[in-house]
Amino acid sequence: MPRTQPNIVITGTPGVGKTSHCELLAANTVLKHLSINQVVKDRGCHDGWDAEFKSWIVDEEKLLDSLETEVPNGGYIIDWHACDLFPESWIDLVVVLRTDSTKLYDRLKARNYPEKKLQENLDSEIMEVLLEEAREGFDADVVVELRSDEVGDLQSNVERIEAWIEAWKKDNSGKED
Ligand SMILES: Nc1ncnc2c1ncn2[C@@H]1O[C@H](COP(=O)(O)OP(=O)(O)OP(=O)(O)O)[C@@H](O)[C@H]1O
Ligand SMILES: [Mg+2]
Q: What stretches pass through the bilayer (predicted)?
């Protein structure tokens, strides 16, 4: 059955502001914030804890199996630092957030990230790893790159995504006939 609400992935390097964007979007729309981190943890979609990187070792197959009964129905804002694991057919928009590297450094430093993890994340942001992943995995018109340097960016990005959701709904209404 066609979706009546879109699915949006908010992705980017750790610390760019994915969760901040998802929370504000979920508060302003009927879409639900789906934190993949939370799903991985709550539903055990992992092969244990990586002590060095302080993160779960995600079992992508288990994760997708767990999401496939809900996500394809639509209405989710997916919060995750990867996007290429999601089937293209599930996703209507991929937002890649980008942050200036000095700002990102400060945000990650404030979280007391281990030096190695901090450096890897900064390199990843500078090398545009997530943007590349999104462009390789999805059609060009599905991927949008937005700045997340200032608090004002958060506000304007969310307004822009809300306008996109409204346009998507208009374009997709009546398609179920
Ligand atoms: N556009 C922005 N301007 C200023 N500060 C921001 C912005 N976006 C996020 N922040 C701040 O940066 C920090 C990280 O934000 P957030 O937790 O939303 O990032 P994230 O991408 O979800 O990180 P992770 O991948 O680790 O979950 C928070 O302290 C948040 O308040
Ligand atoms: Mg987050």
A: none
